[in-house]
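Reviewer 2 asked us to include a model.

Predict the structure of this chain.
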Amino acid sequence: PGAAISIHSAESVEVQISSLAITVPFIWNNQRGNVGVGIEWVQQPPGVNKTQTIVIKDSEIISFNGVLINSSKGSLTIQRSSLQSVNFGVGLRTRGEITVVVESTYIGGPFLYNDPLGLSRLVVVSQAILFMPDESPGKASISLKNNQIHFWHIGFSAFSLGQEGWSKANALLVGNTIAYNNGPGVLLGGDTIAELRGNTISDNSDYGIALFLPPCASISSGEITAFRGKVYGEGNIIMNNNKGDLCPPDYPWPPGFRR
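Predicted model (structure tokens):
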């Protein structure tokens, strides 16, 4: 139980992880909830203003949770790797400013092969890439390029959960394939600014791209998690999503988003 690799430090560190195969047993502990993390990065104590850099290349991670970030300042880069998880692929809970870059990586969720072990029932919502700020302001710059994101409840989501303006995500999605998810391919809420270029978002059981606004979500537009950001980009192929390709349909979607 726990993490295969844990990075805990209050100092400036640079960690390179290359050509590793990491497998963590799926273990449920009623006292601690779901446990089992491939790589855990925690900056201690909270609020330390030292830059930390984590690089993962050419590796494979099979675990309940893939890569967990709970840090204040630094960057995570994942390149040419494979993540197969149940709860989340990359979970980002920052108390400061974090940069995440994921390139040429396969990120697969619990619905692979129709989930014969029923692992998806252990979580409320599984997500490939999740940005959720901690109890204080957090900012994340997230760049996803040329990845395959399949078999999750939600492919990519970014939310502001604190007071308005507390947390913000700048997301750049280029050349990704986000498909075969049981919910929306992309879900955006709060103060998220997202640029999408050249992605294929198709064959998801919910919407292709959904904003956390009615009628996509059962909330009022004034709630704190309601989408207040911006979406722009071009050259995306958004098609064959079960509930529709874009939600809300009357949102001023940018030119070039195929309906």
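The chain has a mean pLDDT of 85. The radius of gyration is 17 Å. We have added this to the supplementary material.
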